[in-house]
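Structure in, sequence out. Go:
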């Protein structure tokens, strides 16, 4: 090989080098885009964001903008990357000849069957802007209801976690030092004191060290994870709902919340122009309680055979109080089911609010008693052998 061919080969290599760098950069960009798209799919869309989307879309359509133009404007304004991507997909579907409701149906995790059905009814009746306002209002009320239920549970759960953490720290740091004091006294320790010392030895024993603590928390985490998974199964969800339903205070709260969602669903969907059978089917699927879902499905089957809702619900006070049955019976007879169920929904949403407030007031003294009792037992277990030291000395 002469020097000329060597120079030509070097020049070609230098020309190929930028191309290789560009290709490598393009592959890297494609990989990053794929990772970004994957992460965007798991970005949650809050109920408040959907409510704002429905309300703004209704305002734009009411102002005379086309639905594609409205979606394009909203896609530029929203900050949620996942919602932005969904809006672009919906725009493409509509421009390709599809419907708004059909495009939303591709995202059941974010737009449930009730919302898709309402949009479909709004498109068919030419009242999409009105339906979107109803959807925004319903989403806001549903979010407020769930927030109240979660708020009622945060305080006791937080206190329980603090009790477990503080108790574990006492077992790890305090009891081993007290054990040396008790050993110096000699004799037999009271049962409660001995139990605490044995439990402390289990957590920080010389053989295992802190491994027992790690295993204990790992087992507890696995147990909680197993319960959460079990609750999501069909049979597990039904059993858990039945257990909560039978609880003295929380059972009444869940019943009122389910009735509020049931009545609100009837009010919103019937007002949108959907037929009663479809309304009942959608409500059963979206109520969030497997016991009420099964019961509403039974009502739907009877309505399909010509039996009125009030007749089916009669003498079933476990799920439907006499007031609900009576008002729905009157509503069916006077063709005012949407109007009356709206009043019922308002009533039970207010009842849930009052129950949550009462529950918070009830939980506080119970927690104080439990905390005081726990501290008293701990002090008693520690002080009893010290106060009776004369009996323990050999």
């Amino acid at each position: 090989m002469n020097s000329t061919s060597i120079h030509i080969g070097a020049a070609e290599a230098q020309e190929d080098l930028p191309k290789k760098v560009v290709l490598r950069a393009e592959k890297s960009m494609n990989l990053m885009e794929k990772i970004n798209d994957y992460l965007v799919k798991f970005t949650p869309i809050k109920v408040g964001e959907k409510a704002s989307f429905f309300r703004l879309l209704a305002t734009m359509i009411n102002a005379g903008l086309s639905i594609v133009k409205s979606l394009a404007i909203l896609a530029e304004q929203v900050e949620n990357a996942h919602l932005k991507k969904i809006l672009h997909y919906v725009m493409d579907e509509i421009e390709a000849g599809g419907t708004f409701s059909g495009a939303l149906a591709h995202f059941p995790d974010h737009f449930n069957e009730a919302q898709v059905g309402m949009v479909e009814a709004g498109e068919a009746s030419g009242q999409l802007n009105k339906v979107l306002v109803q959807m925004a209002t319903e989403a806001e009320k549903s979010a407020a209801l769930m927030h109240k239920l979660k708020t009622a549970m945060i305080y006791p759960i937080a206190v329980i976690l603090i009790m477990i953490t503080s108790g574990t720290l006492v077992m790890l740091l305090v009891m081993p030092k007290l054990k040396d004091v008790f050993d110096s006294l000699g004799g037999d320790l009271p049962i409660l004191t001995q139990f605490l010392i044995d439990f402390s030895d289990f957590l920080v024993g010389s053989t295992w060290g802190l491994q027992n603590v790690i295993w204990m928390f790992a087992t507890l985490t696995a147990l909680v994870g197993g319960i959460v998974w079990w609750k999501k199964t069909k049979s597990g969800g039904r059993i858990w709902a039945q257990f909560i339903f039978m609880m003295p205070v929380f059972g009444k709260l869940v019943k009122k919340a389910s009735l509020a969602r049931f009545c609100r669903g009837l009010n919103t969907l019937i007002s949108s122009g959907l037929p009663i059978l479809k309304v009942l089917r959608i409500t059963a699927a979206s109520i969030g309680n497997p016991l009420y879902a099964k019961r509403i499905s039974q009502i739907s089957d009877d309505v399909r055979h010509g039996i009125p809702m009030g007749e089916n619900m009669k003498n079933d006070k476990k799920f439907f109080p006499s007031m609900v049955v009576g008002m729905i019976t009157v509503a069916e007879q006077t063709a005012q089911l949407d109007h009356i169920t709206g009043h019922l929904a308002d009533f039970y949403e207010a009842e849930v609010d009052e129950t949550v407030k009462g529950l918070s007031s009830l939980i506080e003294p119970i927690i104080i008693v439990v905390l005081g009792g726990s501290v008293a037992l701990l002090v008693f277990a520690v002080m009893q052998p010290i106060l009776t030291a004369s009996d323990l000395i050999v």
